[in-house]
Design goal:
Structural class: mainly alpha
Radius of gyration: 33 Å
Number of helices: 2
Shape: rod-shaped
Largest sheet: none
Helix content: over 70%
Number of strands: 0
């Protein structure tokens, strides 16, 4: 089977179009790679913050579980309960300060016109 001159021209033109499209796709892939590399530190910061928050939440759950177990174990020992309450009260301000220092400010909503 032999191709005509017009067939050769058509094939060559379409190969050129395909080649140009591949160059464009290649450029877009390179741009996406660059964008991802630039975002990586920001994404890592988010991952680190989520990990930190998860660790804090797990610590809080553990602390509450231990506190509950302590109260349950000393339910009939008012002196031990009072001592634990006194310790918690002594640490109140430090806990409040830590929470305030690590709580981001609420975003300011623009006024509704």
């Amino acid at each position: 089977m032999s191709l005509s001159y017009e067939d050769h021209v058509w094939i060559e033109e379409n190969f050129k179009k395909i080649h140009e499209a591949l160059i464009d796709v290649s450029y877009q892939v390179q741009q996406i790679k660059k964008d991802v590399q630039e975002m990586t530190p920001e994404l890592q910061g988010i991952i680190d913050e989520v990990t930190h928050n998860t660790d804090v939440a797990e610590s809080a759950k553990s602390l509450l579980g231990q506190l509950f177990a302590f109260v349950e174990a000393h339910i009939n020992d008012p002196a031990a309960l009072q001592s634990a309450l006194d310790q918690l009260k002594a640490n109140d301000q430090g806990l409040v300060d830590a929470i305030v220092a690590n709580t981001p400010a609420a975003p300011v909503e623009p006024p509704i016109a």
